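pasting Malate dehydrogenase for the record, 338 residues
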Amino acid sequence: MFSRLPRLAVRGARGFASSSARQTKVAVLGAGGGIGQPLSLLLKMEPLISSLSLYDIRGAPGVGADVSHVDTNSTVKGYPADQLEAALEGVDVVVIPAGVPRKPGMTRDDLFNTNASIVRDLAKATSKVCPDAHLLIISNPVNSTVPIVAATYGAKFNPKRLFGVTTLDVVRSSRFLGEVTGDRPEDIKVTVVGGHSGVTIVPLLSQTEQAKSLQLGGAEWGKLVHRIQFGGDEVVKAKDGAGSATLSMAYAASKFTNSLLRAINGEKGIIVPSFVRSPLFEAEGVDFFSSNVELGPEGVEKIHELGAISPEEQKLLDACIPDLIKNIKKGQEFVASS
Ligand SMILES: NC(=O)C1=CN([C@@H]2O[C@H](COP(=O)(O)OP(=O)(O)OC[C@H]3O[C@@H](n4cnc5c(N)ncnc54)[C@H](O)[C@@H]3O)[C@@H](O)[C@H]2O)C=CC1
Ligand SMILES: O=C([O-])CC(=O)C(=O)O
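structre below
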């Protein structure tokens, strides 16, 4: 049955999807949307999930009924607008792609006014119903929505269990670098640090074997870095008013969810970039930062240092920090004043 699903089949073959895997209930909040629908389908194909809870203010019962016919073992239920708390009952992992996407000419920060309160209200519900769940935040601006969730949790905030999903930047880096070098994207691993918008996205290409032929600071490198930082804009422009990345984002979110689920199930050595509460640049006033994070049963097990970076990458980092501080503060102040 899984012959059409090579990535999942490999996972199964490694034994982590065996019947000894723990029962894991996952909720998607915003499941009726452009990301939510394909993400729900991909999570239905995830052997480490036993139960899927799909919530949206529009259309989730329909998406739930549809996805529930897929012939994998997990159960699926869609919940309408007035059943958020029921949707969160007993949930271990909550993935949140709820909120509006960009239109051409907008920055991610332009989404703040609409999405900040959506994310805050969903976080209020998760902190009440499933306070120990791992939270995977997709809604933009991620640099602000993740601090919003942390601030909403207040004393209940567990920094090990809150993740801004920056995986699409990693996915794009592999793909775009592969287009330049001719290497297979599947073989390329790029550590992307910082945040998730424009210049806060910092790909550490000097640490990637396949990027060694690029002259750091040269035109080709500069073009590639710019494409990685502004890859989201390419999609927004091509969709011409109909939204932003949905399919590649659903893929990226399912990839990150799988990494976390494998770690929760005891697999060791899973290290992926994610935007988390981080000590790395705390002294400079940056409370949240994306870097390589080692995942474990409790969520964040270890936050890795950046390692050796080139002078060109240091410049990118210097440009990232002030924007990141602004975005994080904006989220924290929103919760403090609401
Ligand atoms: N982290 C990342 O790398 C990426 C983040 N995004 C962000 O993801 C978000 C969603 O994007 P799309 O799925 O394309 O948008 P969409 O508009 O297609 O879907 C959003 C869904 O959220 C639902 N929603 C709104 N308020 C809600 C609430 N209070 N509770 C539950 N559901 C609610 C809507 O009904 C809709 O179905 C946007 O903010 C977008 O910017 C998009 C791509 C990549
Ligand atoms: O560009 C956007 O607004 C959506 C997004 O975060 C991405 O595609 O990276």
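The longest strand covers residues 288-296.
The pocket of oxaloacetate ion (ligand 2) is lined by residues 101-102, 108, 140, 168, 232, 235-236, 244-245 (CB under 6 Å).
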